[in-house]
Amino acid sequence: MSAPSSRGFRVRALPGIGEIRPGDDLVAVIADAVAAAGEPLADGDILVVTSKIVSKAEGRIIRATDRERAITDETVRVVATRPTADGGITRIVENRLGMVAAAAGVDASNTDDGTVLLLPEDPDASARLIAAGLRERTGKLLGVLLSDTLGRPWREGQTDVAIGAAGVHVFDDLRGTTDAAGKPLLVTLPCVADELAAAGDLVKGKASGCPVAVVSGLGRLVGDLDLPGARSIVRPAERDLFRLGTDEAIAHGMAAGRSAGYSAGRAIGFAEGFAAALSAAERERVRV
């Protein structure tokens, strides 16, 4: 998508959404909250919905004692592991949705004692159901983002990102346009879905009981329900330059080097061995 940038937008929390239980109709819950708030939705509004209430409505709730097993079941690939102060292990993994997250996104916050939440089965599909339902109920052209909280490589703290999207352009593609100095933009592809998820979190908060935010003034980003969802944000493996944690990358590379014929019994210099390991690891990465 390529369009002039908006000069401003508004983000507001939507109050009045109570505790969500399995089987609850989120379209009805959100629509009722909008009516009670007295400010109707308008064409071009984007709703940022905390994924936890979607997980609850979909019954993605398990016992806390099953958390470690659930993390394993949700894991596609281990990216990094680190011991914790209490003797446990933090696992940073790629989960079945393609997200790289601590504990595969299995979360114990904002849920009943003794339970944890799994991420929605298909966040993009969940977003489409909510968007379609709200469009039908209100007659307005609306977009929906499902948000979740993630850490970031190289930076402290966390931020919300979009894990599901419907009716929203997740990227604002500026490639092929020019900057203010007339220079061509070759790689500029802002992920507006993540930016809006983070903006929504600023007004929703983590413990305010307001799991939905409404973004107004960015109707240029709203479109058909068959637009690519948040899964399209996940970088393909062949373009991922930082696919493993440092310790895991070294171990993987050394193992690949040994399988390529550099055994421990053969005396080689460090530089030669390291180069061989990197070369073998690159071959493995390409095969993946």
How many domain modules? 3
Low-confidence stretches: 2-6
Give the count of helical stretches. Answer: 7
Strand content: 15-25%
Described by strand count, sense and barrel closure, the largest sheet is: 5 strands, mixed
What order do the strands of the largest sheet run in, or round the barrel if closed?
A: 1-10-2-8-9
CATH level 4 superfamily of the largest domain: CofE-like
Estimated radius of gyration:
22 Å
**What is the highest CATH level, the class of the largest domain?**
Alpha Beta
- The helix content is 25-40%
Write the H/E string, N to C: EHEHEHEEEEHEEHEHH
Gross geometry? globular
Question: Strand tally, please?
Answer: 10
Description:
Keywords: GTP-binding, Ligase, Magnesium, Manganese, Metal-binding, Nucleotide-binding, Potassium. This is Coenzyme F420:L-glutamate ligase-like domain-containing protein. InterPro entries: F420-0_g-glutamyl_ligase (IPR008225), F420-0_gamma-glut_ligase-dom (IPR002847). The protein folds into three domains: 167 residues, 2-Layer Sandwich (60s Ribosomal Protein L30, Chain: A); 53 residues, no CATH class; 42 residues, no CATH class. The N terminus is likely disordered. Helix 1 crosses helix 4 and helix 6 crosses helix 7. The chain has seven helices and ten strands. It starts with 9 loop residues before the first strand and ends with a helix. It is 31% helix and 21% strand. By secondary structure, it is of the alpha+beta class. Strands 1-10-2-8-9 form a five-stranded mixed beta sheet.
